[in-house]
Amino acid sequence: MNTNATLAAHPPAAAIRPPAPELLPSIDALAAELPLSPALAAQVATHRQAVRNILAGRDPRLLVVVGPCSIHDVDAAMDYARRLRALSDQLGDKLLLVMRVYVEKPRTTVGWKGLLYDPALDGSHDMALGLRTARRLMRDIVALGLPVATELLHPMAAGYLEDLLSWAAVGARTTESQIHREMVSGLSLPCGFKNGTDGGTTVAIDAMGAAARGHHHFGVDRHGRPAVLVSEGNADTHLVLRGGRSGPNYHADALDAASNALANAGVSPALMVDCSHANSQKDHRRQIEVLKDVLAQRRAGRHTLRAVMIESHLEEGAQPLCETMRYGVSVTDACLGWQDSEQLLREAAAQL
Ligand SMILES: O=C[C@H](O)[C@H](O)COP(=O)(O)O
Ligand SMILES: C=C(OP(=O)(O)O)C(=O)O
């Protein structure tokens, strides 16, 4: 064995200098740069309460979390938001429309992880720009008068956006994570836990119980310092049914099973059906029949069906990330286009 050659190929650990990490603004610094005015903060508080009232059955409207699978173009997102705002003015007595402004994407393996991670869509990963772009966009959408929803994927990122949100999801891939349950326990907004990718609801119901309790956990404070964070517990959580590997879970037998499990656990009976993902078997047009089925079950007396989720963009379908991307088309899961979405929501409101 040539010892010198081996040493040259594997220098001692002390000789390896990783590049200096790029620093991010603290939560306080970003909030100072892009503050939420007291009037908009009050509006967010009102919207959160409206969401809570629907989920608790005190408000008969249907909560609809609707919008793109992911945000990759802020102009298209604002275009969508303006249309949704106008529709919300017309349908607001029947539907509470909350826009999906999803800036982090969980991936099954690898792929573009969202605006927060790679706002230029080119692998440059300017995450400081991602944070600024996402916070500014959400604030602009709130300023239109719309409530904003997102999936909170990285607990460290949550603090940068939390004050702008009226509802948040923990996704199917992270519902079982203790770290995400701790994160939700410290949020003062309603949150949905999705069933696991295998379709199992137990992990989400366990998550609701865990998030309702207070926790001590590792985190980063508003000044960017590593800290022991102490949460009080969040009782405003609910189950989101998104289907799983064994198929959809919005039919009556699946809803019965979920409702029994929620009752046995003593947690909120409210159900949100995600019309997309495994419930649509990843065919965006099937969201239409899922929503119609859910509305029929609600009309037939299933009063715990209080919320739905729809993936919708300006244009139908999806496209790969490339040089010649089409305006208003999803770059992650395929979405319904605006025309179909508007018609679907008008029909839903008419039936309620
Ligand atoms: O909602 C979006 C996707 O279903 C989720 O991010 C997983 O995406 P992937 O399976 O394409 O990685
Ligand atoms: C990733 C999402 O959903 P799920 O966690 O159900 O796959 C989503 O709603 O964008």
TrEMBL record:
Domain DAHP synthetase I/KDSA, residue spans: 50-345
Recorded GO MF terms: 3-deoxy-7-phosphoheptulonate synthase activity
Enzyme class, broadest EC rank: transferase
Keywords: Amino-acid biosynthesis, Aromatic amino acid biosynthesis, Transferase
EC number assigned by the record: 2.5.1.54
The protein's annotated pathway: Metabolic intermediate biosynthesis; chorismate biosynthesis; chorismate from D-erythrose 4-phosphate and phosphoenolpyruvate: step 1/7
Classification via SUPFAM superfamilies: Aldolase
Entries under Pfam families matching the protein: DAHP_synth_1
Keyword Amino-acid biosynthesis listed: yes
Catalyzed reactions per annotation: D-erythrose 4-phosphate + phosphoenolpyruvate + H2O = 7-phospho-2-dehydro-3-deoxy-D-arabino-heptonate + phosphate
Organism domain of life: Bacteria
Similarity annotation: Belongs to the class-I DAHP synthase family.
Function of the protein: Stereospecific condensation of phosphoenolpyruvate (PEP) and D-erythrose-4-phosphate (E4P) giving rise to 3-deoxy-D-arabino-heptulosonate-7-phosphate (DAHP).
Protein name: Phospho-2-dehydro-3-deoxyheptonate aldolase
Native organism: Isoalcanivorax beigongshangi
